Amino acid sequence: MARGKFITIEGTEGVGKSTNLTFVHEWLTVRGIDVLVTREPGGTPLAEQLRELLLATREEPVAHKAELLMIFAARAQHLEQVIKPALAQGTWVLCDRFTDATYAYQGGGRGLDKTVIGELEHLVQDTLRPDLTLILDIAPELGLQRAAARAELDRFEREDIAFFNRVRAAYRERADANPAHYAQVDASQTLNEVQRDIAGCLARLLSEPPSLSL
Predict the structure, then answer these.
(1) What is the value of pTM for the model shown?
(2) What does pLDDT average to in each consecutive run of 10 residues of the chain (214 residues)?
(3) In the chain, N or C terminus with fewer CB closer than 10 Å?
(4) How far apart are CA 102 and CA 122, in angstroms?
(5) What is the DSSP string of 8-75?
(6) Is 13 known to sit in a ligand binding site?
(7) Is 114 annotated as a binding residue?
(8) What is the CB-side half-sphere exposure of residue 78 using CA atoms within 13 A?
């Protein structure tokens, strides 16, 4: 049985990840592809509890390394319980955020050593990487306006604009370094234009041989 493909959707706040996650799921499903939709942090009961701890606003400052370790703890559980079994069964996995978010938010935003992030990535994931990462790109000012209009802001969404500029720059750096596995989509376009671009990326993925290793 052929292994499933692994697609992740990334971006700063207010880029439209949820809306476009639904679009990708539907686009693949109508083509007869079995797709599992999940998210990070989260995806299992334990990982969802860690997500709540990570996103909750609190008086106690959260140490950056503690935040990083909680994220990878949730990821380790998610991989073993959900992602790896699904891929092994031939199911495609569509995930709202993955390790690129860690490089962007904890590496770019928080300024943590990316070498340390890489060591944790190897420990938790071994050689597993997404086949395609869609990065929805938008000016942080516009994205934060959208996020503020949507719901109450979580702990990350309350960061200042300089933080999100660093996050955006880190995403772009990763995409520019490996264009074969990343696609940057201008999320400031109309929804139809965004989804047209996403559909083009998915069509190219379907015509390429699998690149995922487990």
Answers:
(1) 0.92
(2) 93 92 97 97 98 91 96 98 98 98 98 98 98 96 78 76 96 95 96 96 79 39
(3) N
(4) 13
(5) EEEESTTS-HHHHHHHHHHHHHTTT--EEEEESS-SSHHHHHHHHHHHS--SSPPPHHHHHHHHHHHH
(6) yes
(7) no
(8) 29
